[in-house]
Amino acid sequence: MTPIKPAADFHPNGEDVVLQLSGLKKEFPGVKALDGVDFELRRGEVHALLGANGAGKSTLIKIVAGLYQRDGGTIRLEGQEVSFGSTAEAMQAGIGIIYQDFALVPDLSVAENIFLGQEMRNSLGLVQRAAQEKAAQELLDMVGANFAATALVSSLGSGQRQQVEIAKALRNKVKVLILDEPTASLSHGEAERLFEIIRQLADEGVGIIYVSHRLEEIAPLVDRVTALRDGVSVGSYPTAALDRQKIVSLITGSERPAGAARPARAARPDLPPLLSVQGLSRAGEFDDVSFALHPGEILVLTGLVGAGRTELAETLFGVRHADAGKIRLGEKIVHQKDTRDAIRNGIALIPEDRRGQGVSLMLPIDENVALPILRRFRGPFGLARRRIGAHADQLIDRLSIRTPNARTLAGALSGGNQQKVVLAKWLSTDAQVFLFDEPTQGVDVGAKAEIYALIEGLAAAGRAILIVSSDLEEVLAVADRVLAMRAGRIVEEFENNALPASRVVDAITNG
Amino acid sequence: MTATTKTQEPSAQRPAQSSWLPKIDPSVIGPGLALILMFIVYSIASPHFLTTQNITNVLVQSAPLLILATGQTFALLMGGLDLSQGSIISLVSVTAASVMMNYGIVPAAILGIGSGVAVGVVNGLLVGRAKIQPFIVTLGMLYMVAGLAMVVSGGSTIFGLPHPDVDIFFWFGGGRIGPVPVPLVIAVLLVAVAHFILVRTAMGRHVFAIGSNEQVAVMSGIDVGRVKIFIFVVSGVYAALAGFLLSGRVISGQPLLGAGDLLLQSIGAVIIGGTSIFGGRGGVLRTLLGVLVIGFMVNGLNLLAISTFTQQVIVGAIIILSAWVNSFRRRKNR
């Protein structure tokens, strides 16, 4: 594979723009996900879309795919202004998309999956299985698949499933193909095979948007690179004009001089650690992890999605159980059967999946906050509602949660304020060790700063903080110490003083 | 975008949580209006509807259903279902009657109600500890317990209960304290207790927490298994008490007492009241409203001489209609 594609019939120049986005805007409650993005995709080019978590990449591709509706801006497909009301419309217009987690039905055959929702029917409305399987097989051959169209998807590996996804995307004549983190769950060989297919499709004139965190993939595969940061594009560049350093600074932003803006820290490495972990392992998730967390310290665990960080945090919180290794709280080795044990031991977990695990959207704020400690509010006539409300009011003030009152349903709040509710819940318990899993995901810039201030306040009060984060800016902004994790192992440790972003990126991506 | 400057909102700026005006839960409006409308139409259509005699009758007849549906509310609030309630009624009926034959009312009450509670405990353990879906557990128990009731009674109704025990038995199901019917008093008390548990105890709030998001409950350190056991024990206790009252009213032990559509009415009443079948939203006061809707609907149709066949069609339609109205409201909120 050569970095610069020998142009066949297509010339990557201005006249051959297949997809043009201008001033694209999208706002979610409390978050401006896209704030006027311009983006241009030419025929036959592979165009990488880069950006940190929350930069707006997923929102952008979901708008193009018709899953979200834009709030502002225009989309032009081959010069025609378009507006997709649904994913089906986008598909009809020639937009193909392959999401990070595959959208296949495991118990149906490959052919059935490929034609799901667009079944070939005869005049009686019955599905024409044979014709479908034949057509599916042709698509599979096109992507170089080595399995039959009649195979069940559940019998396929992840690389093969991705080929099914691509075949499915090619079912309609695609002009634009979007791949979201396509190699996240692929082996090296499978990834190589995928690159060949992508290259081949590009040569046939398909415009390809390639979303990825893995910088090493980009150079050989990609013609141009566009980076997003905080919902705006920070520019498009030909790959040849970029080196790794430049890419990293595009993603992270170069405003922040390393280590300069950080306030004085309360880390006390001289004190015995509050939490220490030795040789902690869990099959298939993380392996031989050891570290110590001191009072007042903010330790950040960084790495790519799937590196085993969330699993590690959940193990420390008693949700999962380690196969081997020791967890120590102070001097004492602990065996945590469940979350209740962990809470009793003074551990708190602010989970990554906020809506799934953090807050109950159907419950009001005060009950969310009091959930782990409800029994404390027992009075002579049952739970003392007034005290629950007062307790929540106090935390609402302390964390500046923006809400009409404490009885407002958590589901009515913005992402940042929901996160503060989760935080308030754990401030209610007397936790000493706080585990944060992607604490500012889907949170706007203002709330982000407030959450960082709260975390730093906790550290200053002598609590020990472990943050799982893939947001480089965040890593650089809050960490006293950084552990880089890759494929379940801690591969490198950095002190924050003059921590270069590129070294962190190197450590988590290079395999 | 919100500014990074912190705006301290003093709590005084927030509107007070409870004003002197009682805040009406919007989900109550649907069944509430239905009830009022029914009263108006029936009062006009039939001179016999709006009489003390008739209203009291309806309330007394609805008492067992109210007790049953109150227990069922717990199961629905966690996002589950208790299908074994009807069979519990049958089991309690035949157990109480056969014990009463030889040992009198007190052991009959204890063992009869106890047998129903035991079913609730088993349900709870299977759901909470063995972690089997409530639907499957209680469907299985529906059959097992119905069969058990047949075994205990030999398949036939137990008549001829001894005096004076049978009089006390009847007092529970059909007696009066002054002008007030006993089953009504018991039902109202049980609703009050259930309401208190759900609203004012940690256990009750945990039921809502599990129903609205079980993962959050787990992550908050709630012993989810224990709460589920509690839920099915409550449902079992309430079903057992309903069974005791009901068989007192018929002064016999009947192995098919709960085999009719009582169970489905109980689930229907909870849904009509506006408790979400996905859990987390609702309560027993709403169920009270649902029971009243069913009770007066059927009564009015009877007075208008509309056949029971047609009545079934109407009750079914109301269940679907109320669920539809509820989902409508939820979508609008989104």
Automatic annotation (TrEMBL), chain B:
Source domain of life: Bacteria
Membrane-spanning intervals of the chain: 28-50, 62-81, 101-128, 135-160, 180-199, 229-250, 262-280, 287-306, 312-328
Subcellular location: Cell membrane
Keyword Lyase recorded: no
Cross-referenced Pfam families: BPD_transp_2
InterPro entries, A to Z: ABC_transp_permease (IPR001851)
One GO cellular component, as annotated: plasma membrane
Keyword list, A-Z: Cell membrane, Membrane, Transmembrane, Transmembrane helix
Membrane-related topology note: Multi-pass membrane protein
Molecular function GO terms recorded: transmembrane transporter activity
Protein name per Swiss-Prot or TrEMBL: ABC transporter permease
Organism: Antarcticimicrobium luteum
